[in-house]
Task: inverse folding
DNA sequence: CTATACTGTTACCTTGTGGTTACCATGCTA
DNA sequence: TAGCATGGTAACCACAAGGTAACAGTATAG
């Protein structure tokens, strides 16, 4: 992941860059508005960046102008950042197209989280779960096994996502019951049927099973061993 | 736009609801975690909401548990909100799946902006959408399939753009109903008719269908596989 | 003002879901 | 060994959800 940091305070910038690097985020750095605009010109409106952190108060002008000028081609999401707690500033930033806002002083871990969220939102970084030949795309709600696309019923999808989230940790029967039938009286057979059906859909023919039962502990999503 | 507010402070809740209503945002309200869970059960994991504002400290438990329990089926984005400025709280919330975080006391206009952002209302509408032989030009409002130009009714155009924005992620029936018939009591048949008509217009003869139904999950714009 | 198209409504059909029952396999315990 | 608990499978079927066509009232355009 590559982001652009526009910030005039050299010390803060250095700290931020160090922290983000440690999180696995690469950072390009511009200390002034002028430098940021140069980069914009070179990179076709920040095309290459997953996100931009923009300090509001820069020595050579207000950062809002950057958003407003370049907004047309802006592909990268912008996180605004300023010392001012003034509400009008915030609203102006959002109005100009910022997607998030953080006030100084901020904690670096929080900044990192927000940057990752921003970058993920736009790149539609679909959360995907893979296990052997099983492939689950959570946002698009697609399940594939090898090159075969699998259609799951609502209940089966719910169960699969629950298992995938916890995998390879087993999920107890009680948890599953509560999760899928939150209110109604639950019959143990419903649970058994659901599991059988999901198993059947996930491994046709003689593909290896991916749902393992641990007696008394529940059910886990892992490769057969 | 419809959101869910989970907040135990009745005064603050009333103020928030008033303000959001004035912004054109409808608000459902839950004062306790228990009530929120009831709503979750009724509405198939908050399917009908565009966003959820969740107060961290509730009388009957910590709101994080709601996220963790129900996360599997969570369609709506969550904005966390709390009096604590404790960094750990923030990070825990983000880790649990929150997409934004705001600390009390907050300014209502800022909350409104963040909610709108979350709900995706500010989605950047791509100029052109393509899928197989289907070609949609949003700004010119033209739809083509191969070399045949297609004319859509207003409703059908609305639906197509909604689907295209989210593609290939499926859009739930609840979302569609709210988007196309925002106020009126909606009849399920209207939805069925609209879908049939759009399908019919988009694929005459024996062109492959581009609108896939995922049982219980909604409808998605993707190539038939 | 007339013709056309849009949209809400009804009726009917198809499909798949999911609760249910019945039966079998395994492993533990008395 | 019988008895029981846990877990797996298959088949049945009521019923809800989805799909289609036809009709009518109303809006819209020419």
Result:
């Amino acid at each position: 992941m590559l982001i652009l940091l526009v910030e005039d305070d050299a010390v803060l910038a250095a700290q931020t860059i160090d922290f983000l690097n440690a999180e696995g985020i690469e950072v390009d750095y511009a200390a002034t508005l002028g430098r940021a605009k140069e980069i914009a010109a070179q990179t076709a409106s920040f095309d290459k960046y997953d996100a931009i952190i923009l300090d509001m108060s820069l020595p050579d002008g207000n950062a809002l102008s950057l958003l407003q000028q370049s907004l047309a081609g802006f592909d990268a999401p912008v996180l605004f950042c300023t010392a001012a707690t003034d509400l009008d500033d915030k609203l102006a930033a959002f109005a100009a197209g910022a997607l998030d806002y953080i006030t100084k002083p901020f904690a670096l871990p929080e900044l990192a989280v927000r940057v990752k969220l921003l970058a993920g939102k736009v790149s539609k970084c679909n959360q995907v779960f893979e296990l052997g030949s099983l492939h689950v795309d959570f946002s698009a709600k697609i399940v594939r096994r090898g090159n075969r696309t699998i259609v799951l019923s609502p209940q089966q999808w719910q169960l699969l996502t629950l298992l995938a989230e916890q995998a390879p940790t087993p999920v107890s029967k009680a948890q599953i019951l509560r999760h899928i039938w939150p209110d109604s009286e639950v019959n143990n057979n419903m649970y058994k049927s659901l599991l059988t059906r999901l198993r059947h859909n996930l491994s046709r023919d003689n593909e290896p099973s991916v749902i393992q039962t641990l007696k008394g502990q529940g059910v886990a999503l892992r490769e057969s061993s």
